[in-house]
Amino acid sequence: QVQLVESGGGLVQPGGSLRLSCAASGFTFSSYAMSWYRQAPGKERELVAAITSAGGSTNYADSVKGRFTISRDNAKNTVYLQMNSLKPEDTAVYYCNADFLLTSYWGKGTLVTVSS
Question: What pLDDT, on a 0 to 100 scale, did the predictor assign at position 102?
Fold first, then answer.
């Protein structure tokens, strides 16, 4: 069955870094655009970063540009989110999303807490 499993979340101090991973299985990973979303308490889920199926194009929310980097390894069926210079406002549950035509899959999320 389809699975997206996020990992790498945790507690980090402001200014620190984390690397999130999302391991995919059960579908043709290399055909899907992949994205990271996040949802902070009391707020709507928002797009953080996205990458095309072959990895040739990326886009980012303005709030994370220059600090976060999305990448993928189609040989490992994994997408990553490198997060640097973290701020308290980056605290949220981060979700992995796979999207192809009318099909969309979601992971269960990993919690990132940025606090001193």
Answer: 85
- The per-residue pLDDT of the chain, averaged, comes to 96
Tell which residue, 63, 15, 76, 14, has the closest CA to residue 36: 63
Tell me the pLDDT tens digit for each residue of 53-62. Answer: 998 999 999 9
Comparing CA positions, the residue from 25, 9, 29 lying closest to residue 95 is 9
In b/e form, how buried is each residue of 78-107, taking b as 16+ CB within 10 angstroms?
Answer: bbbbebeebeeebbbbbbbbbeeeeeebbb
Q: Mean pLDDT over residues 108-112, rounded?
A: 98
- Are the CB atoms for 105 and 2 separated by under 8 Å? yes
The span from the CA of 68 to the CA of 63, in Å, is 9
Compute the distance between CA of residue 53 and CA of residue 35 in angstroms, rounded to an integer.
10
- Distance in angstroms (rounded) separating the CA atoms of residues 37 and 39: 7
Residue 50 contacts residue 34 (beta carbons within 8 Å): yes
